[in-house]
# Entry
Amino acid sequence: MAPKTTNLAILFADVSGSTKLFETLGDATARIKVADCLETLSEVTKTHHGTVIKTIGDEIMCTFPNADDAASAACEMHEALLEDITEGTGGEATVIKIRVGMHFGPAIQEGGDVFGDAVNVAARMAAQAKGGQIITTQSTIDLLKPQLRASTRFVDRAPIKGKKEEIEIYEIIWQEEDVTRMATGLLVEEQKPQVQLKVRYNDQEVFVNRERSQLVMGRSQTCDLPINEKLASRQHVRIELRRDKFFIIDQSTNGTHVLIEGAEEAFLRREEMPLHGNGKISLGRGFSENPSEVVSFSHET
# Structure
């Protein structure tokens, strides 16, 4: 089917502070909590005439036919988590917060996925949001019905990649008693703590962070980190930093094996997954084969 361009509301929602959540609850319990959270977000999306495009790790991406449905869904997502997901875990309360970014505009629909300018802007809004917030653009706010538009406030102006002018950013207030008071300039990237992933192979160390947000590994000497593995493709696998979270994306023939501490071995072929904690990566060979060319990774702050 040929690609189709449609005006849609694009919404991203992900769990805020998921790394700390895994550290506090442990991998098994945290995965259950995150899965429950994503299921709740999916149900809310469908209730508001939305479509879940995909979930990756602790993030959900969805579309809505108009800005009102997206804004209403975003508000209910926060409310639903307060009611359903913050129940006790092991006798103790564990609060899960999400951060939401959304934007209405032209998007390309193809093969069950969505691409284009609106997607990029919505992702940028999600990157600007903090836990418990809904962040969007002025052009999206202008499309809301009056009662929703009345519960918004200007936050800041920010540059967007690919656009000549800065855009105005707004927050949608979903709680009447909102204790979060944001001042202009609060959402600039420099306010966020640095996140960094150390990737090590033999005597080489490479860091993935905001200054270097992508790392390519493979058999080719042109890769950021060349790996001496016969089963590896020339550009076998990629690690990316997105909205302060690290993802590994396989783009190979033989696949990539990932072993995170405390978890079972994962196998990726033309797929991706988030990287939590510390672990090891093997290009083309399973860890049961005792591969000699192993890459290790660890999160650093």
Q: What stands out?
A: Residues 4-189 form a domain with the Alpha-Beta Plaits fold (CATH 3.30.70.1230). Helices lie at 18-25, 27-47, 67-85, 117-128, 138-141, 146-149.
